[in-house]
């Protein structure tokens, strides 16, 4: 499966000059909401992810996704695996489980995101499930930004990766593109101004 091509065809792999939430700049940006806009594409991506998870022998009763970004990917992954799907959400900055979703003691969970960058939201979601007695058997994402090592990839984990070493992480592809501090950004040097993804129609 050529995930990069699927992202490009969906205009989800953007090229430009982007201001990331970290304050750094990048020439590329992944807008996963765009790739999930087409339910058929979303289902195909999730089925491929589910296949990898099954081959590895991961057992799970439920998928849990951090809202908002992870919900669609998590839901489709749960459908492909034939298991439940729930999500955690931030309330005043703190990740919580609401809406009557339940975690039974010993239940096995896959934490699913659309994109894993350093895995911050995913690990917060995992902590919520763990504190309620659930067990995390895997992390999953459609795309990996290349900070964390996924199963079947040679990309090395960087220090900023927040995912634990002892739980496997599955993703369909690595998008390991360069990020620059504003001072060192080559695009800024040419006088271009970084824009926040999501603004100006992207
Ligand atoms: Zn720049």
What is the element layout, followed by pairings?
Elements: H1 3-9, E1 13-19, E2 25-30, H2 32-35, H3 39-55, E3 62-66, H4 71-81, E4 84-91, E5 94-96, E6 108-116, H5 120-131, E7 135-144, E8 169-174, E9 179-180, H6 186-189
Parallel strand pairs: 3-4, 3-6, 6-7, 7-8
Antiparallel strand pairs: 1-2, 2-9, 4-5
Helix pairs in contact: 3-4
Zinc ion binds at residues 17, 25, 182, 185, 187-188, 194.
Can you walk me through this structure?
- The longest helix is centred in the N-terminal third of the chain and has 17 residues, at 39-55.
- Helix content is 27%, strand content 28%.
- The mean pLDDT is 94.
- It has one domain (33-177): 3-Layer(aba) Sandwich (Rossmann fold), CATH 3.40.50.
- It has 202 residues and is α/β, with parallel strands linked by helices.
- Helix 3 (39-55) crosses helix 4.
- The protein is globular.
- Residues 17, 25, 182, 185, 187-188, 194 line the site of zinc ion (ZN).
Quick synopsis:
This protein is α/β, with parallel strands linked by helices. It contains six helices and nine strands, in the order αββααβαβββαβββα.
Query: Got a strand count?
Result: 9
Could you say what the CATH topology is called?
Rossmann fold
How is the biggest beta sheet arranged? 6 strands, mixed
Task: Determine the mean pLDDT.
Answer: 94
CA radius of gyration is 17 Å
**Secondary structure category:** alpha/beta
CATH class: Alpha Beta
Sheet with most strands: strand arrangement: 5-4-3-6-7-8
Distance between the termini: 25 Å
What's the architecture in CATH terms? Answer: 3-Layer(aba) Sandwich
Query: What is the H-and-E element order?
Result: HEEHHEHEEEHEEEH
